[in-house]
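Let's study my pick:
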Amino acid sequence: MEYISTRGGDARFSAAMAIKQGIAPDGGLLVPAEIPALSIEEIEAMANMDYQARALQILSLYLTDYNRSELREYIAEAYGEDRFAPEPAPLVQLNKYIDNEYILELWHGPTAAFKDIALQLLPFLMTAAIRKTGETARVCILTATSGDTGKAALEGFRDVDGTSVIVFYPSQGVSEAQRLQMVTQEGANCHVIAVDGSFDDAQNGVKAIFNDQDLAEQLCASGVLLSSANSINWGRLVPQIVYYFSAYADLLKRQKITAGEKINMVVPTGNFGNILAGWYARRMGLPINKLICASNKNKVLSDFIRNGHYDRRREFYKTNSPSMDILISSNLERLLFELASRDSMRISNWMEELLVSGHYQIDPATLRSLQEVFVGGFADEPGTLKTIREVYDRCDHLIDTHTAVGFNVYSRYAARSGDETKTVFVSTASPFKFSGAVSDAIYGSGYSRGRSEERLLDELAHESSLEIPLTLKDLGKRDIRHKQLIKKDEMKKAVIDLMVKNEG
């Protein structure tokens, strides 16, 4: 399998090169030259496999310059019981008397968020890519985060030989638990920096750094190569395809569906990577009816799916689902490349319009292709809290704010469409990561005010009979190791200071 850029050109890259680079030299995103297909019979056979075997089957189709034995080894290390318990992606039936609703819990990893599923595997793929390509430079994993990617990247690459990690996060744009997870991070190669701005500011700064040729030469002279742990890196995205197949296989195994029966997937999304993985699964042959794209008040994606006009020229809101507080969804470029018949010129023009003017309008044919698969909707903050309470009362199941956005959007879609297709809700984070908002939903508005993170966690654990994830226990008692706060135009300098002057 080779990879090409969404912005065009004749260059082709191996999977190892795609993972090592993270982004195409022309600034585009790397996509597979061909998308492999699976038959219904092959999908049905996954019902008798565990998660690791399912991952091997999917990943081996895309990562063809990694042999199956090494992929098997990496998968076993990444998804072992010491990192994920009870398993990487358990499928839970919400109500034993109702066969139409299921929740795919993706937050049982080391940082209690769905990013772990990719970012526990990526360090193995990255270090192998370095060996396979003969790279001698130190790889700096440069990442912008809206809360979860940062901690997952730090944990995944902590003290991995030949790598450094720099994470930029919006200083006021993450939950307290997310912030504490990052600023208390251990690891000699880990660096965490707060940016006085939004996630989009941090993400734009990271993209500018990747596209800065003078900086690349300066880093190269110091023996440093930049790569990414954001979902712009194909190595971050491809492991996420697996859990869509796994959810379907679990439904088959439990005889809740028949082979070939279509299901809906509800995905809370900001940067569009998670739901894009679902689209790749569908394109490979997974019987998905609708991909329901759930946004919070920053509803740029919801509006885009409705009218084909991507417009980031709007007010930015800080919400109680901060990992979705995003106005520039990077992975949308990959989807548009496929829906627009891989017309790289159109993609380049749209991305240039977004950069220069802050908006672009896709053509009617591409919009029709988008709307055939995707449904968009959004939930505001009161609606999100109301939904947490409703799901808890109805199903005795505690969910976080992002997952609640998905439930809220789906309920309105189902009511207006009459769609009775069996539905899987993708749950992206533990409710304990957003203890303040979840407590307000369960106990009443303003309940969390003045209460410590530790107290809120204990109360939610008692209320729900769930165990507090180890990564969140005693957060307030850990040493603060990362205190740097910079302006958004100081990000390049911060990278130089760390990777050139201090040499990582």
The first helix runs from residue 15 to 21. The chain has a mean pLDDT of 95. The first strand starts at residue 2 and ends at 5.
